[in-house]
Amino acid sequence: xxxxxxxxxxxxxxxxxxxxxxxxxASIGIRAAEADDVVSALKQKGTITSGVANExxxxxxGSDGSLSGVxxxxxxxxLAATGVSNYAAQVMDYGAMIPALxxxxxxxxxxxxxxxxxxxxxxxxxxxxxxxxxEGFLMKKTLQGKIQSYKDVAAGNLRIGxxxxxxxxxxxxxxxxxxxxxxxxxxxxxxxxxxxxDRIDLFALPDASLEALQKQNPDPNxxxxxxxxxxxxxxxxxxxxxxxxxxxxxxxxxxxKIVANGQYAGIMAKYGLSSHVKLLEGQTTAAxxxxxx
Length: 293
Known about the structure:
The chain is of the alpha/beta class. The protein has helices spanning 35-45, 70-80, 97-102, 118-121, 150-155, 167-174, 188-196, 207-216, 245-260, 263-270, 285-289; strands at residues 14-18, 21-25, 48-52, 60-61, 67-68, 87-91, 108-109, 125-126, 131-133, 135-140, 160-163, 182-185, 202-206, 222-225, 234-236, 239-240.
């Protein structure tokens, strides 16, 4: 899960007639205030398109194109709980997600993708938090016990892999890691290959992402370290265009339903994240959007 984010947004327009009222629906047609109008517009559109990356366990794209992971599973069930079942996705780099959303190429950014950050809250609106986690490092085992923070990385003049535009890149910059020692990677699998090929000394991702990588690609020469000292607990939610308030509200309604009926807990358990549920306690999008950077 990441931190994630040109032109004038391209808008597709639908006309929905309700009695004598004609509603102009921008993008996927979400300008109506009522949930029924939102569902109607989505059904007319045919598909709600989500932006995803390929970072287990948050978002997983199979070799056959199948889509799973915490984010897509929660998104599908939350929307289905409100009557919207036409869910599809586009795979892209984290840094491309907000521009794609704003340009109208996406209707939603998966809840498994972007942390809720004040700067991002100026560009998009978020659902209530869906997942929370701590920051971690995957490093050469020879560094284990020596590197526990981004300041340690900077002091050691180490090469660190980060995803472009992500929280980890900001943490590294603020700790004084030089730009030449920051290597941008597109996904966790690529970062792991860079580490094994000695192109970097360590890389940073959320804790569960690193654990999933380690489980899928066991390497006795590498070690996962978390939480990273000096970094906050991060929470992510589904992101929407600023004007798509009705769609965001509809998603929140569905999210509340699947939390109440146990589906949410089941999804978290499926991906080995039951212990992360408690991290959501007391977290709200309003508070996260107003938090200090």
